[in-house]
User: Fold this.
Amino acid sequence: MGKNRGFTLIELMVTIAVFAIIAMMAAPSFRTMQINQKLKLSVMEMKTGIQQGRSRAILTRSPTVICPSTITKDSCGANITGYSSLSDKQKTDSVLLPKIDSLVSIKSGSDNNFLFNPQGITTNKTITLCGNNKSFAINVDGPGVITVTEGGAC
Assistant:
């Protein structure tokens, strides 16, 4: 008879055990990478939302406020004088809520809104988004220039 070729049950179990050990070592670093990616995505969403908010304020010639999605629309809109007396369309047009991932947090003590006047001007404010051992500070100065700086743990 010819020689059998293939794996024995023991060889197969050892191979599976080695793969399981490698997967367990890779899982934590994959999770860290995933959180860091969601942090970067949230920073880009916030930055884009601030740019859109400034443009909308100039185009509609009315105040526009931008808050992270962790804040409700009405709480964010309360930063605009006379928000409660606006029509539903005006309320919708005057508030932007960029999406912030649930794995990303906002540093306590950080600003949580950016209010642009009809000329697209705001006060100097900074919001810091945190995730895992990284943070990004998004600073908006008076004329609306946005700078993003990477920081350490929150």
User: Anything to note?
Assistant: Residues 9-60 form the longest helix (52 residues). Residues 31 and 132 are 10 Å apart (CA to CA). The chain has a mean pLDDT of 91.
